[in-house]
Amino acid sequence: MEAYETYQTPLSSRYASKEMAHLFSPANRFYTWRKLWLSLATAERELGLPVSEEAIEQMKANLHLTPEQFEIAAVEEKKRRHDVMAHVHTFGIAAPAAAGIIHLGATSCYVTDNADLIFLRTGLTLVLKSLATVISRLSAFAAQYRDLPTLGFTHYQPAQLTTVGKRATLWIQELLWDLRNIKRARDDIGFRGVKGTTGTQASFLALFDGDHEKVETLDKLVTKLSGFEYAYPVTSQTYSRKIDIDVLAPLASLGATAHKIATDLRLLANLKEVEEPFESTQIGSSAMAYKRNPMRCERVCSLSRHLMVLHQNALMTASVQWFERTLDESANRRITLPEAFLTADIVLSTLQNISEGLVVYPMVIARRVSQELPFMATENVIMAIVKKGGDRQEAHEKIRVLSHEAAHQVKQLGLQNDLIERIRGDAYFDPIKGQLDELLDPKSFVGRAPEQVDSFLKEWVEPALADEELRTAVGTSGKVELNV
Predict the structure, then answer these.
(1) In 3D, which of 435, 424, 337 has the Cα closest to residue 388?
(2) pLDDT for residue 281 is more than 90
(3) N or C: which end of the chain has fewer CB within 10 A?
């Protein structure tokens, strides 16, 4: 089958992982349709309908389409203007003993909707595995820099200190919520089953001569054969398009998380504190040779915005499904659903590549801390003077005057912050000059940030990644190399 992958895979999935690209390829779509027809025929035979063993065996032997069968289906679809019936005809040519019973009692949505539910569930599984890997990589980064003091920002203005590792835990926590929400959406997905043209199962009731029990059993058998624990109890011609909302919502939320992470890194790159990987031969700008543009993070932001807005399509589509079904959702969903998963996949692979090669510049970080820390340390200086017998109000006034002088040096003259030098040069502060280095140690300003990193990784990240499915995915995931 791999020999036909180029023929079968749409161009839009070019940069997605091989697994995700294949999931939404024509090859897998029509293979899944054939598996669904086989499951239906198998269950119908088990319940006494005239389906021969030869028909079943021929269907099993022809689940994968050849290039010639793709051509036949294309010709038939052009003639019949109906994709499902074109493939019913093509499958019948490949499995002639089954030609008369393929799609027996079913409507088109038996294959299209049930296949979509299979794709949604499988796609979410692939996303979960990639997401777990990103969380693992960022967690290693957080642990490595758990206690490296860095300037915090609120309103993008200098604030109190935090640590590089603590900042990373803020990203990871949101990714953990995405992991939870995506897993919940995946585990909630059911099967449409065999419900007939308007969801009443009338065609199957006719096939089984009014035997309601056999119709119910047929639904359960096909659901089990297709790998689902349950089928939705009631449907119209389609499964409710609200399911698409439930699936795309956590993917859109993941897009918001990814955009926030990538934006933070773009801002840090401007500050020259943390950078995404930059290859030795990479060119940042065609004109400005010195540029090191954060193009990977920019790509994450670009694709994440697309991922976030796709959810709107699902909301609008579900809201205008007239009665038992309208067809104005079909073309939209054929674009929206694959794009959501392919986009999420590329966003995660790019984030993994970024997280595996983040470059931290401690000296730059320390320089920026040193520029702001003197102002932050003034309260500590005042308290130290008071402990030595000084007057709090007098010390406050001294610090206020010196701080304004230092601020003038920084803002008006473009010089370095010399507040500490001014304090050292003022005899008033002689009693505590021996303590100044201790009072200005950046690590004394980060609070419990290092301990928060430790406990967060131990109590939240490790349990989340302890799931066997995710642990295996993280353990077998190699480094991601981006060629574009």
Answers:
(1) 435
(2) no
(3) C
Q: Please tell me the total count of domains within the chain.
A: 3
What one-letter code names the amino acid at 25?
S
For residue 299, the tally of other CB atoms under 10 A from its CB is: 18
Inside any domain, residue 157:
no
Assess whether 341 and 249 both reside in one domain: yes
Domain that holds residue 17: 2-104
- Token reading at 145: 């820099």
CATH (domain of 398): 1.10.40
- Is 294 in the same domain as 185? yes
pLDDT in tens, 67-96: 999 999 999 999 989 999 999 999 999 999
Contact 139, 461 (CB under 8 A): yes
Query: What residues have CB less than 8 Å from 349, skipping those under 6 apart?
Result: 16, 17, 130, 480, 482
Range of lowest pLDDT (31-45, 118-132, 188-202, 387-401): 387-401
pTM confidence score: 0.88
Q: Confirm whether 345 is domain-assigned.
A: yes
Q: Look at the block and give the residue holding tokens 């054939």.
A: 34
Taking phi over 0 as left and psi of -120 to 50 as alpha, with beta for the rest, 157 belongs to beta
Residue 21: CA atoms inside 13 Å, Cβ hemisphere, count? 16
Q: pLDDT tens digit string along 151-198?
A: 999 999 988 899 999 999 999 999 999 999 999 999 999 999 999 999
Instruction: Using the structure block, give the residue that is written with the tokens 């969801």.
Output: 199
Annotated catalytic residue 403? no
**Distance from C-alpha of 176 to C-alpha of 180, rounded to nearest angstrom:** 6
Quick one: 84 and 141 in the same domain?
no
Find the catalytic residue in 52, 89, 280, 285: 285
Give catalytic status of residue 212 as yes or no: no
